[in-house]
Amino acid sequence: MAEANSPIAAHRDHRRSWRDFLYVYPVVSRRSRGVSLGINLNPDQVCNFDCVYCEVDRRTPPRVRKVELPVLERELRALLDAWKSGELFRDPPFSLAPPETRRLNDLAFSGDGEPTTFGPFAEACALVARVKRETVGDAVKIVLITDAAGLDRDEVKRGLEILDANHGEVWGKLDAGTEAYYRLVNRSHVRFDRILANLENTGKKRPICIQSLFLKIRGEGPPPDEIAAYCGRLKHFIAAGCKIREVQAYTVARPTPEAWATSLSPDALEALAARIRAETVLKVVTYP
Ligand code: SF4
Q1: Among the atoms of ligand 1, which is closest to the Cα of residue 47?
Q2: Which helix (H) or strand (E) holds 92?
Q3: Residue range 232-276, pLDDT digits in tens
Q4: Within 10 A of 94 (CB to CB), how many other CB atoms are there?
Q5: Which domain-ending residue is among 171, 196, 226?
């Protein structure tokens, strides 16, 4: 109850739902200090990763499994209207959002799974770009938040070209430097070298952001040789011509499905970020 009355409650409330909407949901993002409208292309909760820290509730059956793009478009337009009119901020938790966080920052492909697994991904990108152009214009970004596993699909590459032409950004996940740690944290059947190649090739075509979640596993943060390997991957990307806009370093913010997966302290996360900065000369922002 105390948190519900706190001005930061809106930042902490990351429920992926709004009213009875199926595919589009608002979030007040601490990352951007603005409103992000999330677009969920995976209401079926399908993901090709199984991260130890994933906050998607897969014990509750999904309300819907299929994406109907006409319904998604209706919801996106309605939510943009609610943002424009201020209706969005009438009720908690959004009524608690400070005025400076109420600007619309982005429309983000991010939901209950991996957006690049969605079949007609390019069609979804075209739809969102068109609605954005017709409603809020170019200043608002379209962000793809991805685990990078599907970035080599032709359909996804076509979608990325649409995003490139419409103020799009790719935020790709990289939580590990070695195959073994990747298997431990992300528990994916996708080969690690494919993830690395996808990030590298995508970043050669347009600047990308790297999103990395660092955590404690059974009380231990990432070991020093793992961090060295992680920095080595970033340095290899840069040497190969991949443009990295920034590294976003996170830790666990909400309860994880695995009790042994816990957050780093703010100091530990900051020390890790300082090491990445020193080794790679990249901009590293932290979200403790
Ligand atoms: S990539 Fe995202 S949705 Fe998929 S398991 Fe990891 S945290 Fe969950």
Answers
A1: 4
A2: none
A3: 999 999 999 999 999 999 999 888 889 999 999 999 999 999 999
A4: 23
A5: 171
- Whether residue 156 is found in the same domain as residue 179: no
d(Cα 186, Cα 175) in Å, to the nearest integer?
8
Strands 244-250 and 284-287: parallel
Query: What is the extent of the structural domain holding 138?
Result: 1-171
How many A from CA of 138 to the centre of ligand 1? 29
**Within this chain, do residues 117 and 193 fall inside the same structural domain, yes or no?**
no
Q: Ligand 1 in contact with 213 (CB < 6 A)?
A: no
**Residues of the chain below pLDDT 50:** 1-13
Which residue matches tokens 């951007």? 32
**How close is the Cα of 5 to the center of ligand 1, in Å?**
30
Same domain for 6 and 130?
Answer: yes
- Residue for token pair 């999904």: 62
Ligand 1 geometric centre to CA of 277 (Å): 26
Report pLDDT digits (tens) over 11-40.
444 556 778 899 999 999 877 789 999 999
Question: Where residue 260 sits, what CATH number does that domain have?
Answer: 3.20.20.70
To test the pocket of ligand 1, the residue of 147, 189, 199 to mutate (highest count of ligand atoms within 8 Å of its CB) is 147
Residues 120 and 258 occupy one common structural domain: no
pTM over 0.90: yes
Enclosing H/E stretch for 197: helix 192-205
Give the domain-ending residue among 137, 171, 205: 171
Number of the ligand 1 atom closest to the C-alpha atom of 53? 7
167 plus 178 within the same structural domain: no
